[in-house]
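Ops channel
N.P.: pipeline sanity check, posting one input/output pair.
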């Protein structure tokens, strides 16, 4: 693999130090409290000469917008956003090798919550942007760096707020957004792949509420609210919901299959069959750890997460509930998922219980037939001639589903060179989240190279 060398050792070490600073800002959401991390990034933005503004619905949960403006005489395109979120999911220090907010550097990895998701991209994008400013690159469109709060809890105070309340700071009608999740190495079948996110599943956060008859718990009831809840959770967890293989998922799978031979390429279309697909996938991918992420993009999913029940150990509660994290395949809605869950729950609950929608957003997808996507392909081919760029659909959601409302074409491109033995997927929201330092520096070089090529070409 190749790597353009635009950065000195001191500049790469400076990027690592900035990431350590951000990791040491505990932005666990809940409660969030992203202000210190935003202030640190704002100082870095001002340090490289960017127009900087901090805005938000409340002081403790701010958002940062910083702009590198094109010369009006050269401007020929709408803005490009480089977007990241600085909030992270909570971490249990007892389960980590190194404290999750220490920014521990062991010489190979930088450890800490947010190194991958996604303070690493905040530093990568800002470092790349700093190089463009320092070199006085004659850019053909404005480049806007955006660091938001509250992505992990639904984006209400972050990108959603910006899109609804201050779209002017985002250029009002940005043409492109670079965001998570994509650009990292996936090693499979002796090949290196670089997925670039072009689609993400929708969200349907639901609540199942079950009634019961209050009473003394010394008189057990097989039909108590808690017992019903246990049956419901068991049924949902065991269920395989209907197959919904869309174009986005099939393009992703074909991208991985083509370099691996004609047999693999012929198998993929069979996975779209509603009867054959669910039965063929376990035979084609026997390892559950590798199969589960693929299965998740081929159907709606529903995962029980938060429980609410009684408040006294010796009393049967009159009502209990469970929150369900539902993810929607492209073309599906919360109503579709509720219908599928009713079919799962009816045999164990009858008509008891109510499913309500807490939050819903539809799946989004973006064209690969754009100058930016083609430049990503060309750049990745230049840094890894044997690698393969594939368009990907992710089972989660990102801030891109809000930016799409402004008409922006959003890609997940956060380039990282990863070793074959690193279980990258397990690092997202997992224990011992860490980023390979050399791979991180390679990503800074690669992102910068891509931006230089694209912004000059327009």
């Amino acid at each position: 693999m190749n790597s353009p060398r635009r950065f000195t050792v001191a500049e790469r070490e400076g990027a690592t130090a900035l990431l350590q600073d951000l990791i040491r800002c505990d932005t666990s959401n809940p409660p969030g409290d992203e202000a210190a991390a935003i202030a640190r990034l704002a100082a870095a933005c001002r340090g490289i000469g960017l127009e900087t503004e901090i805005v938000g619905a409340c002081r403790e949960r701010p958002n940062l917008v910083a702009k590198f403006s094109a010369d009006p005489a050269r401007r020929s395109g709408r803005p490009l956003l480089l977007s990241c979120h600085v909030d992270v999911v909570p971490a249990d220090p007892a389960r980590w090798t190194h404290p999750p907010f220490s920014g521990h550097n062991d010489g190979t990895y930088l450890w800490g919550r947010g190194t991958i998701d996604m303070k690493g991209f905040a530093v990568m994008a800002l470092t790349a942007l700093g190089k463009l400013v320092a070199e006085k690159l004659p850019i053909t469109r404005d480049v806007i760096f955006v660091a938001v709060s509250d992505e992990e809890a639904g984006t209400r105070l972050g990108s959603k707020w910006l899109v609804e309340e201050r779209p002017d700071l985002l250029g009002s009608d940005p043409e492109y957004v670079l965001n998570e999740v994509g650009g990292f190495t996936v090693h499979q079948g002796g090949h290196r792949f670089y997925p670039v996110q072009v689609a993400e599943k929708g969200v349907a956060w639901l609540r199942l509420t079950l009634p019961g008859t209050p009473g003394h718990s010394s008189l057990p009831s097989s039909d108590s609210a808690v017992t019903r809840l246990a049956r419901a959770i068991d049924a949902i967890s065991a269920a395989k919901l209907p197959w919904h293989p869309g174009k986005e998922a099939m393009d992703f799978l074909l991208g991985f299959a083509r370099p691996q031979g004609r047999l693999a390429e012929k198998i993929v279309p069979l996975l779209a069959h509603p009867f054959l697909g669910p039965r063929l996938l376990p035979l084609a991918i026997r390892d559950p750890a590798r199969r589960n992420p693929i299965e998740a993009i081929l159907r709606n999913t529903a995962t029980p997460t938060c429980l609410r029940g009684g408040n006294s150990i010796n009393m049967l509660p009159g009502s209990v509930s469970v929150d369900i994290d539902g993810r929607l395949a492209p073309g599906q809605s919360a109503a579709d998922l509720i219908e599928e869950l009713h079919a799962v729950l009816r045999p164990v609950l009858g008509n008891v219980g109510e499913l309500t929608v807490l939050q819903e957003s539809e799946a989004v997808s973006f064209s690969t037939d754009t100058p930016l996507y083609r430049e990503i392909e060309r750049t990745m081919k230049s840094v890894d001639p044997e690698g393969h760029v594939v368009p990907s659909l992710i089972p989660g959601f990102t801030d891109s589903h809000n930016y799409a409302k402004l008409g922006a074409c959003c890609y997940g491109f956060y380039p990282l060179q990863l070793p074959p033995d690193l279980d990258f997927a397990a690092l997202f929201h997992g224990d011992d989240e860490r980023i390979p330092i050399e791979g991180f520096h390679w990503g800074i070089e690669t992102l910068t190279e891509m931006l230089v090529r694209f912004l000059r070409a327009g």
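N.P.: looks fine end to end. The radius of gyration is 23 Å.
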